[in-house]
Amino acid sequence: MRVAVYVPLLLSLVAPLGARPLAERCEPRLATWLLTASALVLGAASTISLGLLAVTGLIRVPRLAALGHWSAATARHDDPAALSVALLAGLLLGVAVLMAARMLWRRTRSLASAAWDAACMPAREGLVVLPDDAPDAFALPGLPGRVVVSTGMLRTLDETEHGILLAHERAHLTAHHYAFVALAQFGAAANPVLRPLATAVTYTIERWADESAAAQAGDRRRVARTVGKAALAALRTPAPARAAGTTLGILGILGRRGPLASAGPVPRRVAALLAPPLGRHPALTAATAAVLTATALTTAEAAHDLHLLLRTVGAW
Question: How far is it, in rounded angstroms, from Cα 97 to Cα 92?
């Protein structure tokens, strides 16, 4: 436990450095899975590590040690972590649990609200057209989900581009992209250092939907043009009108606004569509798998070491 318990915490500091390479060089579907798994596994493992360290501090307190029939004196002698480290871990653990619970509650409420809105919306083949001059489009998860498009967006695009836009938004619903974003954000809530991973997921789901639309349209350049055209329309819309287009709460569900997250990721998406499709990038995939495997193994080892420590201090 002297080393293993700290490995997940150290890997949490290193892993975000790989978020951008994964998002930019790896096929979007695979990148989304790898980034989401990384955020979840590292978030859970780092929280467990903090808990293990906090326990080593608790068993040094005589009253608490007595509850488990442990020897506080033996714990102070055999414990591999300094008391100050255990106390800091306990404080960080409390914050992590609070933030994760808060995020889970807010996300559950948002998804429930979205499902209710989707169920109440009159739709034709899953499409809802809003009478709104502000160009906007988004996928609203539910049972069933809905694709919502404003009349302003429909006027901005031609008929072919309408099909591309709908294919993009329907890909979000079909692949349950809101779940990937929610899970990645949950891991990042438990460990804020992992926020770059969650941010990367909001980009890769857009790339995933772009590639799905390109596969259906058979014209990557046309899809790139549609993404850029819709982005320019949204940027030219006055701020109050843009704000009015987000009243259904999709920002709280997917962390995005329609097909356009912001001006920043859009040029990257357009450039990716103008280039050949990305491959699986075995090196990045293997590196991510190695990090997650090391995280799981060291967390299990640290938990086993704590179990042995508790048996030792309980034997006196």
Answer: 9
